[in-house]
Amino acid sequence: MSRSTDKKPVGFATHITAGGIAGAMEALCCQPLDTIKVRMQLSRSGRLPGTKPRGFLETGAMIVRRETPLALYKGLGAVLSGIVPKMAIRFASFEKYKAWLSNKETGKAGVGGVFIAGLGAGTTEAVVVVTPMEVVKIRLQAQQHSLADPLETPRYRNAGHAVYTIVREEGFSALYRGVSLTALRQATNQGANFTVYQELKKQAHKLQPSLTELPSYQVMAIGLISGACGPFSNAPIDTIKTRLQKSTAEPGTSAWSRINTIATAMWREEGFRSFYKGITPRVLRVAPGQAVVFAVYERVRRVIESISSEDMDDGYSE
Q: For the chain, which domains are there?
C-alpha cells in the first residue's frame, strides 16, 4: 500500500497537551505582573484629594519589601490547577465554533466568524473554568501577609484551603461570583485576540508565500500584538470584576446591584481613572502571555501532529 500524506485532525488530546504546556509557561512567566495588577485594582490610593494612585513599579516594590519576592507568585497554585482545562477548552471550543461558522464550500471562516468563535470560546472558558479559578486566585493575591514570617497565618493557606473555606463560609455559588463580568471580559478578550491573531497570520503568510509554517519569533510577535487588544477594550470590566470577587456577598443583594454599587463608588470616590487601575501590568502580562501561549501552543501542536503523522504513515506501510 502507498503511504498516506494526510494529516490526522487535531484532536482534543492535542489541545489539552499543547494548551496546557503553553498555559503553564504563561503562568510561570507572568504571574508577578498579574499579582501587581490585582493589588492595584484593589487599592484605594488616589481616593483622597492630593493623593496619587501607586504605579505598577511602586506597587511591585512595596509587595517585595513587605511580603518578600515570593509574594508576587501568590495564587499561582490556583492558576496552574486551572490552566490545563482553561487552555484546552479555549482552543478546542474556538476550533469547534469556527468549524460551525465556516463556509461549507471552502471550509474557511471569515473575519466575523472568527470573532464570534472567539467570543464563544471566551464565554465557555469563563463559565467552566476561569471564574472559580479567579475567585480563588484573587482571594490569595489580596492577602497582604509576609511569607518570611512563619507566625503570620493568612486566612487562606493555599488554593485548596481557599476553595474549602469559601464554599464552607459563603456557599458554592461564591466561586461563581462575577461570572457575568468574567464571561464578558473573556469573550471580548478572545474575540479580539483570535481575530487579530488569525488576520495577522494571514498577512504574514501572504508576505512569505514560501513558508509553510511561520517561525516562532513571528508567532510570538503576532501573539504580542493580538494579546494587547483585549485589555484596552475591557479594563473597566476587569477592575469591577476583581473588586466584586474579592468582596464577600451581602445577604439580600443581587450580583447586579453589587456591581452597580462598586462602579458607583469607584466613580464617585476615585474618579474615571480608577476603572483603568492596573492597566499597565495587565497589558504587560497579557500581551507577552499571549505571545508565549501562541508560540508554545503552535510549536507543541506541530510536534504532536508530526508524531501522529509518522505513526499513521507507519500504519500504511507495507
A: 12-304 (1.50.40.10)
